[in-house]
Every structure is written in structure tokens, then in C-alpha cells.
Design brief:
Number of domains of chain B: 2
Radius of gyration of chain B: 22 Å
CATH topology of chain A: Cytochrome-c3 Hydrogenase, chain B
Shape of chain A: globular
Strand order of the largest sheet of chain A: 1-2-3
Largest sheet of chain A: 3 strands, antiparallel
Distance between the termini of chain A: 47 Å
Number of helices of chain A: 18
CATH class of chain A: Mainly Alpha
CATH architecture of the largest domain in chain B: 2-Layer Sandwich
Number of strands of chain B: 9
Strand order of the largest sheet of chain B: 1-2-5-4-3
Strand content of chain B: 15-25%
Shape of chain B: elongated
CATH superfamily of the largest domain in chain B: NADH:ubiquinone oxidoreductase Nqo5 subunit
Number of helices of chain B: 5
Radius of gyration of chain A: 24 Å
Largest interface: A-B, 52 and 46 residues
Number of strands of chain A: 8
Strand content of chain A: 5-15%
Order of helices and strands of chain B: HEEHEEEEHEEHEH
Helix content of chain B: 10-25%
Oligomer: heterodimer
Chain lengths: 408, 213
């Protein structure tokens, strides 16, 4: 039987004497190469113009906040890897500092410096991924090969430091899983020397590229006011000229001692967001260089932290006190004071916040994760309206979101 | 308080509390925090935004204090000042414990839209005046609110969201196999309930059915 291509809908409207323009509804995702994971956009199109866009999120919802209420503070560290899985080291650090604020722990300078180095390397690796994927989205394949080569070098550094490439789980509450291995700082310094020329070469492929500019300049414009009203953070807000960066505004983990600039855009379009990410990578290299140069000696965990993460292994096996302490930590978790804290850290994708409500004991009563991708995506219904369908791909790519932290 | 933390914007918060005597101090380990009545939320947050400079809604969430507590649900707002770079925490208890409601602040910050949808989805708190209060992380038609304290970690048997697929396959959504739960060592072949009478009965796996009620 031949298929009847006449839309019954349209026939009915014609019979009712309504104008013939017909809107088409299009569902993009949840598995579409340009949706970077499992975002689904339910759109309404008038020809090629998007007249309505409704993001459908939640396909990657794992109930992280429910899980957190059912395990000890230490046990939740690996779950933070899986929020923004392109920058797990930065998530580890944000979570650790949030719990340290609750426990009133101050970590020593060496621990802070290691955390800063790892967080900035994570920022570079996240932006490299975002840049490469974005270039593919708008039709430039080569960039991806450059950025992935560099990202691979970073993942080797992460592997050398933490034993894992992706799911690092490196921080502990009040410290780190282990000190840096010998020679690691030298490898980091070597990367800082090799990376900037390659970054310049990579960005040269795009920054004055006619096709790239045609696809991004003036596309997906977000005003300064909208960026604040929708709670946008990170490069997406800074691309719109909002000069917010928690590393400067509320320095944590010793960020105050490093000299770096916060790039902001003027137009708020896809191109500005790209430029901001590029400049942030240069600034991250600056921070890492300084941190390596004045790398402090001393302990790499807080003095009181052994009561929270773990007593030294050799002591556990030989000393009664440490054995009991280890047993209590594993069974009941580290004992925290009652109270509420909210801590936000400047992650690659934006501001990652942890709101912890504790009733005391080893398990949080409530742990809310304020994820940057969730807030950043909430502006999509506004930004997408009026754009061409082909521009949706450019807009989505310029947001550089990760569904792992959006859906939690 | 870590030494590098800047002191809070005490003057703005003090002025705010002087304007609104119904805002009372809330215990907090870090930022200034106030408890306010639910009905005053839109007016107070508007004043915080326009007069006190807390122009950004950093976070909006809720806490379930478990059945029996009253107010059972508290909605918590974190506001951020983009000029002074500090936070204030505003909390309001929902008046009705069985059918909690809270006035919506989407008119003040469009970004509150998704946050309120999430709180509705996870806790079942209705936001009055919200333009489009649908579920956001769970699917439309899901019968529970998972972050309520009585909801079990493993989940509850539910029908598949797609009725057609469910009719065809006869499948449903089963609770996750917990292998004994996060506080219990791996069960192996032993029945956890017999081995550890105090342990949570979450000993089913993909192969062993969940014990009946």
C-alpha cells in the first residue's frame, strides 16, 4: 500500500479555513551527537525558525542526593567524580571544601596547592574537551584532534597522580588520598611549557576562521541581565560580561595568592563564550605555573583530618587506638557537628555548590548539589526562540554542559 | 571560619532585619541566615534583591525533616550579591505538612523556574504562581517524590513510563539491587537478614527476588 503523505492535521486546518502555515514539532535527542549526552530538546518549528524550545532533562538522573543521605561523608567522594565527569578533580575539591567548612577544618598550604593544581588542570582538560566537541558541532574536525592530543597528556598526569584517568576520587575530607608522586611536578611544569604554543595553534584554526565566525558571532546572544536572572555562572555568564569568578571574589584553597585575570566577553554570543574559554585555559596555565614555582613543603592533610578520612595504614595494623578509629570511621563515618553550610566553587562549567544540612553524626541529613549545567541550561527556552534550527547546534555546543551534573 | 573568607555583608543584612521584623535569625555555620514566614517570601526576597543587593538566586532547594516534624518541609533560598560577593540564606517552613505549598519566586528570577520544578518533583511541594509546574528529573506520571524521607533508597516498584512498551513486554521498574546496602559488607551467599539481624533488609539481587512484605 502506498504511504499517504498528506498530513491529516493540515487537511483539518485547511477545512476550518485557518491559514496554512503549519508548525512542526521536532524532538532532538536524547541521543543526538550535538546534545553532548542525554539532553532532549522538544522544539516547535516554523519552517527553519525555532518558535518554542522545551529542554527535557533527567535521562541521567541517578538520585545522587538521595544516595548521599544514605552514606557517610567519605563514601560520597567517588560520587562527585560522576557529576561533571570531564573535571572530576574539581568536583572532588568542591565537595571536600564544603565538608571541611562543616567540620571547621583548615587544610595546610601544600594540600591547597595540590588541589589548585589539579583543579586548574581539570579546567584545562574540560575546556579542551568542550572546545574540540564544539568545533565538531560547527563543522571543524581538525580542532578535535589537537585538543584530544593535549587532553591525553593531562589524563596521563592525572593517572600518575591518582591512579585513575577519569574517576579520580582524589581528595579526602581534610586532605588528599595521597601525596604527589616524585617527579610529578616536573611533568606538570613540562606540560605548562609545551601546552601554550599548541593551544595558540589550535585556537588559530578557529578564532579568525570565516566559517566559524559566521556560525557563532551574534548567535545565541544572552544579555548581562538575563545571565544574572537565570543564575548563569562560569564562562557562560562571563561571556555575557558578568565579571563573576569565585576564585577572585571569594578566594578558597589559597587562590588569593595567585596572579591571574578573569576574561569577560562583551557580546554574550557563542563566539564570546568560545573566546572566554580559550583565555581561561591560558590563565589556568599561569596559575599552575605559579603554584608549581612556590610549591610549599609540609603536611598534605589537616592535623585533625586523620579522625575523618583514615588513620595511617601501618598504625591500623599495629596499634589498638588506630584500629578502633578505623573501625568507627568505616562503620559510622566521621562525626560532624550539626549545622548548615553552603559552599560554592568555581568549576570549569560554572559554579558548583554543595548545601549540606547536618544533624550531627557521620551521614548528611540533606546534601543538595547546585550544579552549573542545570542552571545554565534553564535559559535555553529563552535563547533558542527565534534561532535557526542549525544554530541550535551551535548554541548547545557553546554552553558546554554535562548532563551528569545537570541530572545528578 | 577559614581565615581567607571575607566577613559577611553585616550592614545590609542588619538593615534588612530592621525593615522586616518577621525575619528571625537562623542558626548557620557560615553565611548570614534568616527564617521567614512562607507567605512573606515573595515580598522579602524582592526587597533583598532590589534594596539589599542580593541580585542573584544562587540556589533554591528544600529539606524534608521527616514525618512527624512540623513544619515538615523547609524551602531554602541562597541569594548571592554580585557586587559585594556574599551570600544570605533564607528559609521558610511550608505551612501544611501533608500538602505543602510555597509562593513561587519565578516572577523575581526566571531561573527559579527549574529549581522549583525540581523541588516539586523531589519533595512534592507545590509552588503557587509557578507558570509551568511539571516534573523535571523524573517523568510525568511518576507517582512518588523520591527525596522525601519515607521513600526507600532502593526505590519502589513502578510501572514503566511508556504504557505501550509495558503492555508489550509486561515489564515494570524494579527497585535497584542493593547487595546489602551501603553500610553492610557484601552478602555473598548468606542471607543478610539472618546473618545480621540489625542490618537493613535490602539483600535481594538480580537473581534473588526481593523478599515479600
Amino acid at each position: 500500500m502506498a504511504t499517504d503523505f498528506t498530513f491529516s492535521d493540515s487537511a483539518a486546518r485547511n477545512a476550518a479555513g485557518e491559514p496554512e502555515t503549519e508548525k512542526m514539532s521536532l524532538s532532538m535527542g536524547p541521543s543526538h551527537p550535538s546534545t553532548h549526552g542525554v539532553l532532549r530538546l522538544q522544539m516547535e518549528l516554523d519552517g527553519e525558525i525555532v518558535t518554542k524550545a522545551d529542554p527535557v532533562v533527567g535521562y541521567l538522573h541517578r538520585g545522587d542526593e538521595k544516595i548521599a543521605e544514605n552514606m557517610t561523608y567519605n563514601q560520597f567522594v567517588p560520587y562527585t567524580d560522576r557529576l561533571d565527569y570531564l573535571a572530576p578533580l574539581a568536583n572532588n575539591m568542591a565537595y571536600a571544601i564544603a565538608v571541611e567548612r562543616l567540620a571547621k577544618l583548615e587544610v595546610p598550604p601544600r594540600c591547597q596547592a595540590i588541589r589548585v593544581i589539579t583543579a586548574e588542570l581539570a579546567r584545562i582538560s574540560s575546556h579542551l574537551m568542550g572546545l574540540g566537541a564544539y568545533a565538531i558541532d560547527v563543522g571543524a574536525w581538525t580542532v578535535f584532534l589537537y585538543t584530544f592530543g593535549e587532553r591525553e597528556k593531562l589524563y596521563r598526569l592525572f593517572e600518575e597522580l591518582t591512579g585513575a584517568r577519569f574517576t579520580t576520587s582524589y581528595t579526602r575530607i581534610g586532605g588528599l588520598a595521597r601525596d604527589i608522586p616524585g617527579g610529578w611536578l616536573g611533568h606538570v611544569a613540562k606540560f605548562c611549557d609545551e601546552f601554550p604554543p599548541i593551544l595558540e595553534e589550535t585556537m588559530k584554526l578557529l578564532t579568525r576562521n570565516k566559517i566559524f565566525m559566521d556560525r557563532t558571532v551574534g548567535i545565541g546572544v544572552i544579555s548581562r541581565e538575563d545571565a544574572i536572572a537565570y543564575g548563569l555562572t562560569g564562562p557562560n555568564a562571563r561571556g555575557s560580561g558578568v565579571p563573576l569568578d569565585l576564585r577572585k571574589d571569594r578566594p578558597y584553597s589559597g587562590y588569593g595568592q595567585y596572579d591571574f585575570d578573569v576574561p569577560i566577553g562583551t557580546g554574550g554570543d557563542c563566539y564570546d563564550r568560545y573566546l572566554v574559554r580559550g583565555e581561561e585555559m591560558r590563565q589556568s596555565v599561569r596559575i599552575v605555573r605559579q603554584a608549581v614555582e612556590k610549591f610549599p613543603e609540609g603536611p598534605w592533610f589537616a592535623a585533625d583530618a586523620r579522625k575523618i578520612f583514615a588513620p595511617p595504614k601501618d598504625k591500623i595494623l599495629t596499634s589498638m587506638e588506630e584500629l578502633i578509629q578505623n573501625f568507627m570511621l568505616v562503620t559510622e563515618g566521621p562525626q560532624m557537628p550539626a549545622g548548615e553550610v553552603y559552599f560554592e566553587a568555581e568549576n570549569p562549567k560554572g559554579v558548583l555548590g554543595f548545601y549540606i544540612v547536618s544533624k550531627g553524626g557521620g551521614v548528611p541529613w540533606r546534601l543538595k548539589i547546585r550544579s552549573p549545567s542545570f542552571c545554565n541550561l534553564s535559559i535555553l527556552p529563552k535563547v533558542c526562540v527565534g534561532a535557526l534550527l542549525a544554530d541550535i547546534v551551535a548554541i548547545l555546543g557553546s554552553f558546554d554542559f554535562v548532563m551528569g551534573e545537570c541530572d545528578r | 571560619m577559614p581565615s581567607e573568607e571575607k566577613p559577611g555583608s553585616d550592614s545590609a543584612v542588619t538593615a534588612f532585619k530592621a525593615r522586616f521584623p518577621q525575619a528571625v535569625d537562623r542558626p548557620s555555620l557560615d553565611h548570614p541566615a534568616v527564617n521567614v514566614p512562607a507567605a512573606d517570601i515573595p515580598a522579602l526576597l524582592k526587597s533583598l534583591r532590589d534594596d539589599s543587593g542580593f541580585d542573584m538566586l544562587a540556589d533554591l532547594t528544600a529539606v524534608d525533616w521527616a514525618e512527624g516534624a512540623s513544619p515538615r518541609f523547609t524551602v531554602v533560598y541562597h541569594l548571592y550579591s554580585t557586587a559585594r560577593h556574599d551570600y544570605i540564606r533564607v528559609a521558610a517552613g511550608c505551612p501544611d505538612d501533608s500538602a505543602p505549598v510555597m509562593p513561587s519566586v519565578t516572577a523575581l528570577w526566571p531561573g527559579a523556574n527549574w529549581h522549583e520544578r525540581e523541588v516539586f518533583d523531589m519533595f512534592g511541594i507545590r509552588f503557587e504562581g509557578h507558570p509551568d509546574l511539571r516534573r523535571i528529573l523524573m517523568w510525568e506520571g511518576y507517582p512518588y517524590h523520591p527525596l522525601r524521607k519515607e521513600f526507600p533508597l532502593a526505590g519502589i516498584d513502578t510501572e514503566l513510563p511508556d504504557a505501550e512498551v509495558a503492555a508489550e513486554t509486561g515489564a515494570g521498574l524494579k527497585p535497584a539491587p542493593m547487595m546489602g546496602g551501603p553500610f553492610v559488607a557484601s552478602t555473598g551467599q548468606i542471607n543478610m537478614t539472618e546473618a545480621e539481624p540489625g542490618a537493613k533488609d535490602e539483600s535481594w539481587t538480580e537473581r534473588n527476588e526481593k523478599p515479600g512484605p
